[in-house]
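Hello,

Following up on my earlier ticket. Below are the two sequence lines again, exactly as submitted.
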Amino acid sequence: MSLVSPVDAPVLFGCGMIAAVIYRRWLASRNEDWFLFLGMLVVGAFWVSLFVGAVGNLPVRGILPVVTTESLLLAVCFPLAYPFWFWIGAWALFLLFGRQPEQGGVYWLYRIEDRTEDFESSWES
Amino acid sequence: MSETALVTGAGGFTGTKLVEQLLGAEWDVVATDLTEADRGQFYTETDNAPHPAYDPTLVNEHEEVPFRTADITERETLEPIFENYEFDVVFHPASLFDYFADWDQLHAVNVEGARNVAELAATEDVEQFVHFSTLGVLGAAGFDEPKSEDEAYNPHNEYCESKVEQERVLHSVRDEQDLPLTIIRPAPIYGPGNQYGVYHILLVVSKLGFAPIYRIYPRSKQLMFPSIHVEDLSRIALFLSEKRAQSIGETYNAVSDCINQDELLSFLGESLGVPRIRLPTPYRVYKLWSKYAEIHSRRIHEIAQERDKRPKIDAPITQYLSNNMWYSNEKIRELGFEFTYRDPRRGLWDFMTWCKERGVIA
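Thanks for your patience. The regenerated structure is below:
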């Protein structure tokens, strides 16, 4: 038996973006490892819920995992790619808005006012 | 016997460093500039963003140097200075370097102001008049060889156009009144104290949070980055005044060895500790993108003007993205000058440290 939950990739992408916002605004200045901790937390939760849902045939996240016997390779690779989807979502946000509070990302170029001025450099704080 | 120099624009970035250089060489120096309050009439000052090219703390830093307040646009304020001192050399770095300024202001300071100083210097028979122009008067180069001093003018914005007019005026004073003229054309100047121009490249990479490294293909179509450390520039001015027999009547590019823009961005990304994203890009695609960046920054510039604010990046600065600013320093090196920062990465490292220590980049 193999298992694939097709909505997980876009949801993880979104989670990556949300985690990046939280990290950038509140956690980056405290400890840069927080991003890794958040990633492990979110991806770990997805793995566990996928496994529990598939084994117990339970809609743990509101959706039943799609059970497939078509491709073992797909079923192995798909959950293993979860960190990648999370990471790519976070990176998209970092590119757009910066990785630290004092950075502005690409969006900084498009604004007249500089809303990053009030933040102290991370290396100083 | 030590020589006496007049330094115009002595409160500015280049002027301050030049004064230090001359004092180090045991020259007697007389400094002149506007008062801080008077500068407001020329520079675009807004409530939230004073023009960063002028650091008021630089004015009157050297108490041992007589500081004579004067406005180069008003000749009568300069006359007492020339009456009270006998100058061997007049150094004229004073200029309105502000891409936000309108043409009338640029013309008043850069063209008519230079005429006033030059005519007085010619009347008083100074031994040399060392003028600071800009490499921008030459415009962009092709991809085969860097531009040398004898190429035709091709300015790409109003500031550079004003500097072309300035050179023409000085040439006419030289021809009509025997002004012993030497022209230095500096590349974009950086170094401790700079917060306008090259500083903005550092600022953009720092604020983006990543360094976009455009690897342009074919590799024969590389855009270059010209620059000069302010210390090298002031050393060049001093060097040319010491070699005045050879340098009078000549024009010199003041530029370190140019490096590729992708080399520059890679270096900045690494030094500023931000991720480097390599983007292999066909030349035509890059040109399209840089054209978009130019149009976009011009639009931001206009919106900022409508709101009486300064844009974070003045539009003409983005022209360095789309044009190959490649210039030769062969002539000054052949005269015997040796750069302290011939590879700009060495100087930029020091500059970045200065910026970080003062919190002007993250």
